[in-house]
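Listing S7. Sequence submitted for prediction.
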Amino acid sequence: MVLALPASALAQDAGSPASGQSSSQKPPQTAKPRTGKLPIGLRAMGAVQLTAMDSSATFETLVGSSNLPGFGGTVDVLNLVSKIFVRFGGAQDSKDGSRVIVLDDGTVHSTGVPLTLSVRTVELAAGWRQYPKKHPKFAWYVGAGVAFSELTSESPFPQPGDNNSDSGSGALVFAGFDRTIWKSLVGGLEVQYRSIEDVIGAGGISEAKGESSLGGATIRGMIGVKLRR
């Protein structure tokens, strides 16, 4: 005698797992994508800037303002270790005015002799640069280092001892952002502060005003070129 089983029952038996085997299988594991190391890059930037000098009374007396316009440039080597960069930079701020004499009673008189005050600065620094994921054309950065500054006073027809210079060094901090404008063209904005004490104040108007700093706060508009990120 032959027993006929329903087709559905046969299909169920054929599809059921063998005895002793697990009916669940672990999904295959996918390898996590590797985060590639950022390539070493380069930023070469020119800048126009305005510096508010700490020794405000001295500069206001000599050139009529403590805010000195200037220009400069920086070269940043990027991604040396992770997102760390190093900077080499230089700048010059200057303004024209006239020489003064300080009398024994402390009063100040202009001599009418033309004068150009210039502050030249060299920067050596390092910092951290961050690239926002949602805005890949932008980057912001912070840094710190050392600044070497020299103050020169020059007249077109100086008397002996008129043209002189004073120099010193101190700490530098800065922060800014930049944006890729087109291909390798980059523009940005930066603020910085340098603290350089005990440079002036040993005579003349700076001593009369009780000021000795060659530091100040600077705002820069920057434009330049990049090599890689």
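Caption to Listing S7: primary sequence and predicted structure tokens for the chain studied. The beta strands are 41-53, 67-81, 84-102, 108-130, 138-154, 164-182, 185-195, 216-227. Confidence is low (pLDDT under 50) at residues 1-20.
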